[in-house]
Amino acid sequence: MKVSVDRTLCYGSAECAHRAPTVFAFEGGYGVVRPGREDASDDPQVREAAEKCPAQAIAFVE
Ligand code: SF4
């Protein structure tokens, strides 16, 4: 599973970057997955960030 952020949903709260800073960054007003960290979908901090994203913009895809 790969983690991704849907920019059409993200409204830039930056919470993901605070909850899982090794995987998410905040750039240009959006949450982004750091390059090379797309495979971190099993990280509990990433799961929590996804659950608590207020826009439900963090997705897990095969
Ligand atoms: S927590 Fe959600 S809405 Fe906030 S920056 Fe991250 S992806 Fe965007």
What does this entry show, briefly?
This protein has 62 residues and is of the alpha+beta class. The protein has a single domain, classed as Alpha-Beta Plaits (2-Layer Sandwich).
Please tell me about this protein's structure.
This protein has 62 residues and is α+β, with helices and mostly antiparallel strands. It has one domain (2-61): 2-Layer Sandwich (Alpha-Beta Plaits). Helix content is 23%, strand content 26%. The strands form two sheets. The chain has a two-stranded antiparallel sheet with strand order 1-4. The chain has a two-stranded antiparallel sheet with strand order 2-3. A hairpin with a 2-residue loop joins strand 2 and strand 3 (30-33). The mean pLDDT is 97. Residues 5, 10-16, 31, 53-55, 57-58 line the site of iron/sulfur cluster. The site of iron/sulfur cluster has 14 residues, from helix 1. Ferredoxins are iron-sulfur proteins that transfer electrons in a wide variety of metabolic reactions. Pfam families: Fer4_13 (PF13370).
CATH architecture descriptor name:
2-Layer Sandwich
Largest sheet at a glance? Answer: 2 strands, antiparallel
**First-last Cα distance:** 5 Å
What is the percent of helical residues? 10-25%
Number of helical regions? 2
Mean pLDDT over the residues: 97
Bound molecules: iron/sulfur cluster
How many β-strand runs? Answer: 4
Rg result = 10 Å
- Uncertain spans: none
SSE order:
EHEEHE
- Strand content is 25-35%
| C-alpha geometry | globular
Highest CATH level, the class: Alpha Beta
Number of domains: 1
Give me the secondary-structure category.
alpha+beta
Q: State the CATH topology.
A: Alpha-Beta Plaits
Instruction: Walk across the major sheet and give the strand order.
Output: 1-4
